[in-house]
Amino acid sequence: MPAVMSVNGSSSGGPDIPAKLTAQVLVCSIIAAFGGLMFGYDIGISGGVTSMDEFLEEFFPHVYVKKHHAKEDNYCKFDDQYLQLFTSSLYLAAVVCSLFASKCCKRYGRKLTIQLASLFFLAGVILTACAVNLAMLIFGRLFLGAGVGFGNQAVPLFISEIAPARYRGGLNVCFQLLVTVGILCASIVNYFTATHPHGWRISLGGAAIPALFLAIGSLLIVETPTSLIERGNPQQGLETLQKIRGVQDVQKEYDEIVNATEIAKQIKHPFKNLMKRSSRPQLVVSMVLQMFQQFTGINVIMFYAPVLFQTMGFGSDASLLSAVTTGCVNVLATLVAVFGVDKFGRRFLLIEASIQMLIAQSITGGILAAFLKSTNALPKKYSYLVLFLICFFVSGFAWSWGPLGWLIPSEIFPLETRTAGFFCAVSMNMIFTFIVAQAFLTTLCHMRAGIFFFFCGWIVIMGIFAYSFLPETKGVSIDEMNEKVWKKHWFWKRYFSEDPDQRDKP
Q: Ranges for the Major facilitator superfamily (MFS) profile domain (predicted)?
């Protein structure tokens, strides 16, 4: 969504490099991570808003009629392509803007890219909160999507590049932690505004608070030393490195960054370089992880939690309160990743969570298939059991595929292909988020409870992938990643030839 290894082409603050966790690094990381809070708020707010009667009457009157029709099918009452477009359009814009953000990160720096993200967020908030027609609403979501594309491209890289390696895991997962906090805040806001005549405007307008914080805060953060050196400001890069490390003796780390930068400068076409055989393991793993993250089914819960709980028989207020409950679980479970990612390792958390999510999804699907028909309400005892299972599912995701889906791609690319590689990862995430958001309500209508078994199938596949094809990257610096990780993996080692003439052939 995130100790993480450096993504600056060096060990960056490893055990043999002096570095402190300075107030400068903490403040800059927290400010940047507010991009995650903005992203999370966008995720969480849409589901609650699309279940509000005033919002539906204003923009989707036919859905409002279906929602309150006594004999309407439980699984199909919210099935509408334009209603889904309200949610999914944000991610379509994010896919396109991620490419521009990737180039902006490399040419103009991480700091400016974060500043642009905050401006896009503010424009989107104004348009959606003041919308008087569907077109204005969708355009607002597109601007928010641009903010997501720029923010998700720049923030994880920014935090990874300024943080000492032994603290990088916790600091990077702060991005995902604030995503979960944003989702929780959105659920709470939706709960208290649900009965207000203009509650949906208040909910959408509430996004202005994190957007303003990010906009003002982005003026205060420093540029990363890697970006400064990469863009021809070596002296400023050295001074910034000394400032954020809290020590004067940074020559070794500085030399490593300069060396990585020189190597990167030789790569004129980073996207073309990504297609080389030796770049394939990192590219495939990062993109597949992002695809799998969406096919856990988590965004079904996060986007449409109030809608989903209403489908299961909870009333409007109860469904929003249930969404708040899952949001709390999401935040608390993400703390496990903050403190456990470098203790337990990436693979262990991903494999354990796959088993946990499989159990939750399969039992939930079984209960709905057995007891929730087209027009009845799910018996109360089963409704609460489903709520527990969804919280059980969310907790597993929150300490594994959520933060690690962002963390692993941020640590496996060398500097010469970093922005290009991370763009591919972010784009893959946004593409599949768009697909899931656009298709879910229609799929729920046609597959009914079978939608949960659909996600179960994907969870089995991703668990097998994590066990068989994902190498453990815990405790390995970037400059040693190929030698210690990829070249020793039973499958990926075949992409690295000892013969330099054959190394990068397809």
A: 28-474
165: buried, middle or exposed (CB in 10 Å: 19+, 13-18, 0-12)?
buried
Residue in the structure block whose two tokens are 């591919």? 424
Q: Do the beta carbons of residue 326 and residue 397 sit within 8 Å?
A: no
Largest CA distance in the chain: 73
Q: Retrieve residue 181's tokens.
A: 């906090």
DSSP state letters, 147-198? HHHHHHHHHHHHHHHHS-HHHHHHHHHHHHHHHHHHHHHHHHHHHHHTTSTT
